[in-house]
Amino acid sequence: MLTYLARTILKMLVTFFVIVTLVFFATRLSGSPIDFVIGEGITQEDRALLTSYYGLDQSTWVQYRAFLASFADGQFGLSFVERRPVAEIVGERIWPSLQLLLSSVVLTLALSLPLGILGAVYRKSWIGSAVMVIAFVGYAVPNFVLATLMILIFSYWLNWLPVVGNGTPWHFIMPTITMSGILIAGLTRFTRNAMLDVLGQDYMRTARAKGLSEQTVIFKHGLRNASITILSVIGLQIAGLAAAGSVVVEAIFAWPGIGDLLVRSAIVRDYPVLQFGVIAVSVAVLFINAAVDIAYAYADPRIRLGRA
Amino acid sequence: MKRLLATTAIATLFAMPALAVEITVGASNIAPYLDPGRDHSNVGSQFYYNSFDTLIAKNLDSDKTEWLPGLAVSWELVEPTVMELKLREGVKFHNGEDLTADDVVFSLNRMYQATFPPYQVRARDRLENFAKAEKIDDHTVRIHAKREEPLWETLLNLQQVMIIPEEYTKALAGDPKVAEDDDYEAFSLKPVGTGPYKIATFSPGEQVVYERFDDFWGDKAPLDRVTVKRMPETASRITALKTGEADIITNVAPDQLSLIDGDANLKTVGAATALFHVMIMNVNHPKLKDPRIRQAMSLAIDRDTLNEALWLGKAIVPASHTMQEFGELHMPELTTFEYNPERAKELLKEAGYDGFEITFDTDAVYYTNGLLAAQAIMEMWAEVGIKGKVQVGEKWTGNSPELMARNWSNPMYFADPFGSFGVMWAPNGPSESEGRFNTDEAYAKAWERFRFSKDVAERRAAYGELMERIQADPPVLPLYRPFESWAMRKDINWAPKPGNIPYVLDFRAGSISFASN
Amino acid sequence: MADTAFTPSIAANSRLKGASAIWRDADPIQRAAMVLAVILISAAILAPFIAPFGPEQQSLIARLRPPIGFERYKDGYLLGTDELGRDVLSRTLYGLRLTLTLALLGASIGLVVGGLLGILAGLIGGVFEDMVMGAVDTQIAIPFTLIALLLLAIFGSSIEVMVLVLGVYGWEQSARIVRGEVRRLAQMPFIEAARSAGASGPRIAFKHILPNVISPLVVQFTLSLSNIVLLESTLSFLGLGVQPPTATLGAMVGIGRDYMPTAPWIVVAPALMILLITFAVQILGDWLRDRTDVRLRAR
Questions:
Q1: What is the mean pLDDT of residues A76-96?
Q2: How far is A213 from chain B (nearest CA, A)?
Q3: Is pLDDT above 70 for C231?
Q4: Which of A127, A206, B206, B504 would be a feasible disulfide site paired with B500, CB 3.0-4.6 Å?
């Protein structure tokens, strides 16, 4: 177990270093970002003055070392635009993103598990077909279309729901639904398939043969066995998908989270923020993956014994 | 909110302590930092006037120039290049400190003798003629110019020379006795001034919260609290106004006006902003060296049609680089720029234009209708035979040798042609320095007379000469003064003031009120 | 958002069956998807012939006109006009064409690059395999939208960059599938036999391994296709994709959303089109997976 843990952590560290280095050099490929930072209409001497003030006149190698060094003081450098520590800028935005993520995961689980089970149990009837159609359509509707439509209907026409920021619980409704849409569609399908697999197993037949009620069979035996597969998928994939979804959702609803920050810094080429944002999100995803890996290994003796 | 306001009106009637009057403004952009000295962006300009004062104030209700006492109660030239100002007594900063001559000298010299690079850059284009400020006594300062200055009041009314506290600023970082770069960086996140609102919360790029400053020296602020919040999406901003999340919103595109005006609870106000959207052309691009080609590019553009189609005819199409606000220097009689497609075709023929592609750069969203105008201009060029292509990108390309044409804006930073045309098109100014505009000795001489002559007629004549030069070898075409609109609840009386620079969200006494119904 | 989640890893144990019985075996939804796919593809190919106007042809006097059947409708503009007086129908058709082209190119690049790297990794092994699989792991770790944001921030937005970005999407899945398959097959007797008979590496790869990985790759291809359509739309919607005036479906929705309250028709047609594409591709992908008996596995 310990060696497995050590290997997982080592692998994570290497991946992390690769990401950090790639991200840094990638952002320097296009040359100096100074033209994005200071913008228009200044003389060449002033441009040179500001270039050196922003530290962008140094060689890429020197900048890279400074970048790595900035990990040490925990500030991760200064934003080109806001001129304050990147850690502070990103830090302010973690909690709003996390709130949105949590509410979306809750909604996703609350809807897709029952739907998936229904879809599997009643796969031959119209209920099962309905579930599948919902899942397919849900997957096909891009989240930005869903968001735009909801804003038009619920805010613009009906004046029911607020559209900007995260001030009140009401503000959570549309962003949460937007973000959950694709998760619900995916997880419903997945749950359905996992349940189908389980329902066909021998022990289910045995359970039925023992005269247990259908409900007991499904929930006690079926769901429990399917849940291992389902949970591993949630852990592994929701993090990545949510990170991606939050970019769109936060941009549309001006939600003060990391996704919104990333899009903005990509547009204005605020590289220190963009770099750190990408790294922070990747690390979070890495962590979740590693945690799931370890939990999985703990549950599965074959892996615990060192055969990854 | 409405109920709240009605109550307030009644409360005031009975001279009872009023309930809090609060409004929320949805703005498409919030500044990433707040320091009036280093900033001259359109985004930043929204915020300073509520919280900062200049030494010399201006009557903003008129577009004629009338100077008023600000933090200085009187001023006079004691020598041809030295102005002495008497400061107002009993002025307090938001942090409780008293305003003294030291603060004024500090604020001015941080610009006049700038060491902090962003200040250096900002001072160079407009404050170059000022040598220093010095303290005479606690409430008297003298300002020394390098040469005789015809625009004293104008240049003491600038956003960039608003007054900030010395001790507070110096103590923000590092040594509390010394002004370091880090002090100024820190100030721009925790700004303090003398205006009627203090900045209670500032989340860079997200929101600015103003609160009434009770120790303000002048008329007290009419609102207790103003929250200006970032609402970047046009549709969201309008929706927020409808749902009541916002009471006022900025930057309403002309296409949306009818929609809001059709709502019984809402209204719009607007004005042609003191700013030109312009097309710039690179005079040094190998293919555009012949001025006739650039003249044709300019003559081919039917700016009135752009105005009708994109601005509902509400923008102002200028005949020259001139504005009403310039007062005595307003020169509407000049015809520097016109629409003449036939002439454009002739010029292209004479110049031997062989159908090469001319690129036009634009940002996708930065200027209202910017992309639409660019695309429409391509069609107009096509009419006279110019093959144009829009290139969309966020990067500023005005300093690239490959630049052919692009859009830009020439704001009026202060009410004088020097504050608009002058900042951008001076000899060795940004345009020339970026390599897309050339000046020669004759231009520089005309510029000198325009900038420093104390005789208005002389300045007008010199400006006319500059415009002739621009016409003969055009680097720029002002397209129009865009019509900028704000939308709000119907019971709010607010409108941009004619004497202000563009985009200012002014909530001082007399600038905003509420209908009593 | 289009990302790798719920994209099942795929194991191959059969081949595509013949095409003759396809229609007969399909259920109504699948048939509808097939018809839809044929219509969409034809519309995309024929766009230059059937579109009534050029995609960038504008008429400033006919801006923001509604579709047929509404007041202020302007003759000839069936689905109305946009903010520059361009024909929404024509732009939607051209947008469909470009979006599909980008998606096909992107998915193909991912497939070819990933497949090749997978084969090489499987055959060569050693450090090379570690490097390829390390890259695969890294890409799986970073949400792809972030990679796309980064690449677009660096290289700017143009059609070429967009193809590159979309090409980077999904290669890691193909690489993983192929390499796993190569490793599995390498232990099979018939490969051993071929090798001892003196067959070269490339020969083994193409003659023996390729046929075995084709069906999982086809399934993978359809999956990434619909994800890439969503990805392209999303990036364009955010203003980071192909830049105006070029019409792509996502960009039309992105720019049109400012006009949502006043002129919803600008958004409706391209949004619907995106939905139809992803819907059809999904159904067909699922159907393909069933037919080829490529099984879903949890991990």
A1: 86
A2: 52
A3: yes
A4: B504
Nearest-CA residue of chain B relative to C236? Answer: B364
Contact between A148 and C253 using a beta-carbon 8 Å cutoff: yes
Query: CA of A211, closest CA in chain C: separation in Å?
Result: 30
User: What is the domain count for chain C?
Assistant: 1
| Contact between chains at B259 and C244 (C-beta distance less than 8 A) | no
Residue A297: per-residue pLDDT = 64
Q: What is the pLDDT of residue A288?
A: 75
Domain assignment of residue A14, given as a range: 2-69
Q: Which of B374, B473, B373, B484 is nearest to B425 (CA)?
A: B473
Distance from CA of B370 to the nearest CA of A (A): 16
Average pLDDT of chain B? 91
The answer to whether residue C238 neighbours chain B at the CB level (below 8 Å) is: no
Residue A306 has pLDDT above 60, yes or no: no
The residue among C159, C162, C258 with the most chain B CBs within 10 A of its CB, best to mutate, is C258
Mean pLDDT over the full length of chain A: 79
pLDDT band, very low/low/confident/very high, at C75 (cuts 50, 70, 90):
confident
- Choose among B37, B7, B39: nearest CA to B21: B7
Q: What is the mean pLDDT of residues C228-257?
A: 84
Cα C111 from Cα A178, distance rounded (Å) = 30
A82 occurs within a structural domain: no
Token digits of residue C106: 């992107």
Instruction: Of C143, C176, C6, give the one whose Cα is nearest residue A234.
Output: C6
Do the domain assignments include residue A122?
Answer: yes
% of residues, chain C, pLDDT over 70: 88
pLDDT at B398: 86
Neighbours of chain C (3+ CB pairs under 8 A): A, B
**pLDDT tens track for B205-260:** 889 999 999 999 999 999 999 999 999 888 889 989 998 899 999 999 888 898 89
Q: Is A141–C275 a contact, with Cβ atoms under 8 angstroms apart? A: yes
Is position A169 within any domain?
yes
Check if the beta carbon of residue C153 is closer than 8 Å to that of residue A27.
Answer: yes
For A5-9, B25-29, C103-107, which range has the lowest pLDDT when averaged over its residues?
A: A5-9
- Asked if A152 has any chain C CB less than 8 Å from its own CB, the reply is yes
Could you tell me if A149 and A260 lie in one domain?
yes
**Which stretches of B17-150 are assigned E, i.e. beta strand?**
22-27, 56-58, 67-69, 72-79, 82-87, 130-137, 140-145
The stretch C126-132 carries a mean pLDDT of: 85
Instruction: Tell me phi and psi for residue C292, to 5 degrees.
Output: -85, -5
| Adjacent-strand bridge partners of B82 | B79, B144
A160 CB neighbours in chain B (<8 A) are 243
Q: Has residue A78 been placed in a domain?
A: no
Q: At A12, which amino acid appears?
A: M
CATH number assigned to the domain comprising residue C266: 1.10.3720.10
- The answer to whether position C88 is within a domain reads yes
Q: List, for residues C158-189, the tens digit of each pLDDT value.
A: 888 889 889 888 888 888 888 888 887 777 77
- Decide if C38 is inside a domain: yes
Position C4 in a domain: no
Which neighbouring-strand residues pair with B360? Answer: B390, B405
With DSSP H G I counted as helix, E B as strand and the rest as coil, what are the percentages for chain A, rounded to 5? Answer: 80, 0, 20
C152 and chain A in contact, CB less than 8 A: yes
pLDDT band at residue C10 using 50, 70 and 90 as cut-offs? very low
Q: A285, C143: Cβ pair inside 8 Å?
A: yes
How many CB pairs below 8 A link A and C?
A: 155
Give the minimum alpha-carbon distance from A239 to chain B in angstroms, rounded to a whole number.
Answer: 26
Per-residue DSSP letter, B63: S
Residue A229 forms contact with C (CB below 8 Å):
yes
A62 and A126 inside one domain: no
**What is the domain extent for residue C70?**
28-298
Amino acid at position C90, single letter? S
> Does the residue C22 lie in any domain?
no
CB contact under 8 A, A190 and C6: yes
Token pair, residue C296, equals 């879903």
Is 60 exceeded by the pLDDT of residue C131? yes
Q: What is the mean pLDDT of chain C?
A: 80
